[in-house]
Amino acid sequence: MSKLTQVEEGKVAGGAAGQEEPAEKLSAVFPSYARFDISLVKGKGSWVWDDKGNKYLDFTSGLAVTSLGHAPEKVGAKLKEQIDTLWHVSNLFHIPGQDKVAKLLTENSCADQVFFCNSGAEANEAAIKLARRYQQKIKGVDRYEVITFEQSFHGRTLATLTATGQQKVKEGFLPLPAGFKTVPLHDLSALGAAIGEHTAAIMIEMILAEGGVLEVQPEFLEAVAALCKEHGLLLIVDEVQTGMGRTGKLFGHQHYNIEPDIFTLAKGVASGFPAGLMLGKGYLREAFSPGSHATTFGGTPLAAAVMSATIETMLEENVPQLAAESGSYLVGQLKEKLADVPFITEIRGKGLLIGIECKGPVGDIVLAGQKKGLLFVTAGPNVIRLLPNLYVSKEEIDQAVDILSELIHTYATEANGEA
Ligand SMILES: *Cc1c(COP(=O)(O)O)cnc(C)c1O
């Protein structure tokens, strides 16, 4: 049966057979995203343009990905150079670009070893696999369970959605893999009670970004690290969103007095080129012996060139420090302009990962922002999430704050009027 016939019979479209539904109306892309009604076609620095020529100030950065702004020139130059040199070779060969990236990252963190992959979920999969394999093959113990936290987000593969502490990502995907437990954040006794003879690791974000921009309390994190030491567990920090300067330090965990055994990166690490990394301490090295884990596209010459250009730029230009300064300016301005709005319960975050928690849903504010030329997203139903690029200027922050302040004041008044 041809595809067209299937459409005519309503099978591809999923509609009832015989129902008149012109095939061209349905996109050939699975509708797994609730997309905004905007098609972005061009970007430079803090700005993006849609296919109608409208210009927007981008406070989403592709969800913490384009941290050096859109189309950053230095990184672009390295990408173009690499395009004319070598795109891809198998990981069966040495890839010098990987050693360069690994050196940059290990010299600037507590990690000693790096594994290259292609996304955040894959980096977390690698972390979970490394933790299990270290416990089972190196320590010789029957430990496999990973404890995570409610409201966390760790990815969409079967293992990482199971690790994720949000019910909505799991619906319809049963059965889920075994070996995961979730406990409430900041509940030390629940965490203590969850640790058992099969526990291998605890996995945590430094700011639960998707879960509402919830910052982990330092005392809690220190207690988690102490529990890991006491019970022989590995501490895995998911830095997919908080890593690469976003929070005002190169890695989010560097705000705290702890060292993870393993941490993961993706989003901001290659300026929009797909890349993920799993980093670990030297004592974990032998757990990933030859043949134990692999991926075709991890750390290709092309990906490695973009990663090292991104990381070098961040280090040379002290981009994390820019994020810290712009972040405190942005939060200060928001607090000043929105101090009189009871609709807002809290303005929080670190660096340029900022949440504005409100008393009600904020989806309409996001849509209204688009009409005013400002793009931002939510983190859960009631939290506005701001993720500008880390070079965002003071003037751009002022523009965004003016728009946000007007939107929120209007919305808060309307919401009050209706109540
Ligand atoms: C985005 C994100 C992931 C998943 O990354 P993908 O590249 O989408 O697979 C995992 N953990 C955190 C904290 C994230 O923000």
Automatic annotation (TrEMBL):
Pfam families: Aminotran_3 (PF00202). One of its GO terms (molecular function) is N2-acetyl-L-ornithine:2-oxoglutarate 5-aminotransferase activity. Binds 1 pyridoxal phosphate per subunit. Pyridoxal 5'-phosphate binds at G120, A121, F153, D238, E239, V240, Q241, T296. It catalyses: N(2)-acetyl-L-ornithine + 2-oxoglutarate = N-acetyl-L-glutamate 5-semialdehyde + L-glutamate. The modification N6-(pyridoxal phosphate)lysine is found at K267. GO terms for biological process: L-arginine biosynthetic process. It is an enzyme of class 2 (transferase). It comes from the Bacteria. Its cofactor is pyridoxal 5'-phosphate. Pathway: Amino-acid biosynthesis; L-arginine biosynthesis; N(2)-acetyl-L-ornithine from L-glutamate: step 4/4. SUPFAM superfamilies: PLP-dependent transferases. Keywords: Amino-acid biosynthesis, Aminotransferase, Arginine biosynthesis, Cytoplasm, Pyridoxal phosphate, Transferase. Its main location: cytoplasm. N(2)-acetyl-L-ornithine binds at R156, T295. It is found in: Cytoplasm. Its EC number is 2.6.1.11. One of its GO terms (cellular component) is cytoplasm. PANTHER family: ACETYLORNITHINE AMINOTRANSFERASE, MITOCHONDRIAL, AMINOTRANSFERASE CLASS III. May also have succinyldiaminopimelate aminotransferase activity, thus carrying out the corresponding step in lysine biosynthesis. Belongs to the class-III pyridoxal-phosphate-dependent aminotransferase family. ArgD subfamily. Homodimer. This is Acetylornithine aminotransferase. It comes from Paenibacillus agri.
